[in-house]
Amino acid sequence: MDCIFCKIVEGTIPSKKVFENDSIVAFYDIQPSAAQHVLIIPKKHIATMNDVATEDLPLIGEIHQTAQQIAKDLGIAESGYRLINNCGPDSGQVVFHIHYHLLGGEKLGALVGTRD
Ligand code: AMP
Ligand code: ZN
Prior knowledge:
Bound molecules: adenosine monophosphate, zinc ion
CATH class: Alpha Beta
Low-confidence stretches: none
Number of domains: 1
């Protein structure tokens, strides 16, 4: 499958990893949107939030726990952070392997939508 994040999981595309276990990888975003910007992904290829099955729920929970741990490791657990998943065209999702943006390390802007 021609998926850039599967290639990061396999190691055929390089990444600056901050965490890895049997089911999850986390690495720095190449185009950071905040002082700290890490992407957390499951090793399993799931295209979007819409494709998360009941059997995947423990994995999604584990991703949240991983975000908590990475925030601690980066020293931003107390200053605060944001965990974002983009799903589908209106969100601007460009990589169709589910991923969570962990953003922090500075005061973040408002959530971006079209309304105040
Ligand atoms: P999204 O718009 O939610 O699909 O976000 C995809 C993110 O993946 C963007 O923030 C990109 O900067 C990031 N990205 C794309 N390719 C790579 C890569 N090879 N290594 C790290 N981050 C990447
Ligand atoms: Zn993939």
